[in-house]
Please model this.
Amino acid sequence: MAANSLISLAADLASGRIRVVDLTQTLSPEFPQIVLPPEFGQCWPFRIEEISRYDERGSAWYWNNLSCGEHTGTHFDAPIHWVSGRELPDNATDTVPVQHLIGPACVIDCSAEASADPDFLLTADHVRRWEAVHGRIAPRSWVLMRTDWSKRSDPIAYQNYDETGQHTPGPDVDAVRFLIDERNVVGFGSEAIGTDAGQGYHLKPPYPCHYFMHGSGRYGLQCLTNLDLLPPTGAVIFCAPLKIRNGSGSPIRALALVPG
Amino acid sequence: MIPPQIPPLIRPQRKNPILRTRQPLLPPWARSRAALGLTAAAALGRFELQSCGDCGAVQYPPREACHRCLSDQLRWREQSGLGDLISTTAVHHSHDLFFRERVPWRLGLVRLDAGPTVVAHLHGGCAPAPSRVRIGARLDKSGQGVLLAFPIDEVPNMADDRQLREMTCDPKFRKVLVTDGKTAVGQSVVRALIAAGADLVWVGYAEPWKKPPHFAELEALPQVTLLPLDLTDSRSVKQLGGEIGGKVDILINTAEVHRTYGIAARSGVEAARAEMDVNYFGLLRLAQEFGPAMRARGADGESSATAWVNLLSIYALSNYPAHGTYSASKAAALSLSQCLRAEMRPGGVRVINVFPGPIDDEWNQLLPPPKLTPAALAKAVVNALKDGVEDVYPGDVAQEWLARWEESPKTLERELSL
Model:
């Protein structure tokens, strides 16, 4: 039965009845990285140095060395990333069960709200209203917060800093608790630079999505794009991190399968 | 007697793009080891001659022994340079390729009050002989020390003298790249350059989403063009080098990362790596992308490529343990700048290193005064360009450290580690 499903999946992919949507931002030096106050340690931006390009450094081949942080570009957050998840079993990029890295996605459209208010917080009530239309979120689903923030191609608009810090949308405390405690989601994904809102430091607790999701062994996806091409339900996403020993996260090539 | 008039420099015409760019040439550069003492002093803006420790005679040209008593106890001593201009001449023909392109070239014979009579390049503002003049030492296009006779009193358009301008890097009518305009120092340098008559100032900025105070105000200055430039990103540096590298006359590298840790105060290497990535590798990336074009334009008309300025630190000379990794990154940059200087010299482009003491900014908040204001540092940078020196130690702290370092590097090392 399962074997037939896979053969059927392959056939549907080949015929286009199932399409693959790329949820990944291009890794480039210009893509902004998360910024902490200067006295803290910093995440590296993506950087690329040419080794050779059919030249005196290597006559017939072109290749590069690259560097970045675990949390650069479209990336995966493992539970060990946050202090609340530091003691959990299988909490790092090399030990997270790979079964968790492929799963159904519920896409909650908050694009109108985020457009009106960059500090928009997704509440539990908002999630319940979404469920009233699209059905109850199945256990072990990924919940992706669509804000169209990824369409801000200008890094200044994407980061959206002013003198009080960053202003980007994210989930409120009660939504995070609801998704974990009452819906048993596998993780939460966002289009902005963090799963938490830009002003998430001022919530209680600070950065609730990191604190509660990772504290209960769930995962985070950040800097996703093309969420507007996904149906509210019915997509399956692939979000495997690099197998970094004891890694806290990893850049990923996030993909979604959607009905054609 | 009315002194000769120096015609004011007029804005050079746009380059004729169908003519071949004039190739850089150097004036005769060979010197004996003894003669390099004149260069070493001129690099700091000083005019020094050998003075005999036994008989007190001052001599020129430099030699291995005193011309009067044959003592080898010769010390380089700073001179007032005052003297009498005895005679002058103008060279109208030369087989030397450098001067062949620059004749007529005026020379004078000056009897210094200190004793020697010297042949010197002649500033156009000097009154006809006999007259009083002041000899100064300057670095010529080859980077070697030469003597230049100046009028005693300031004359109008002093800096615009054609022969002097071959020895200085005056920003007037020149196009300048300031690599980081986001810092207070960068912004002060931009404003000082404009006040000094720079034609155009390109101002680099990295991480545009960070909006530091007063950065946006730069854009209101008509001479300023803001351009993305991130010294940690090779492609960014390469792109800007491709876009404007062939037009930059003066490059001023103000970009730096400064953290205040020694070894034990910060675990890991990330803060130190960030310092090295900008302070050392950033300079290397800039030098690779901008150096060749600037070197090729060292004689490109009146506003040729002329200078490359590095913002180093007095901590480059000796490690200040409280800012230990920063000191190390600046020492690395100093070493690389010496390589850059050697590679730029064939183009006649001067590499100027600036070694400030603590700047009055947030990273030196805990250091006691005196601290150098960004405006004072910017003024020192512009003065260094106008004087054409190689090494500048602006401010009291830098001057004191320099004096101690010249006296005994080991003593300074011990003092700084207390």
In short: The CA atoms of residues 16 and 260 of chain A lie 6 Å apart. Chain A is about 20% helix and 25% strand. Chain A has one domain: 18-32+70-259. Chain A touches chain B through 18 residues (CB under 8 Å).
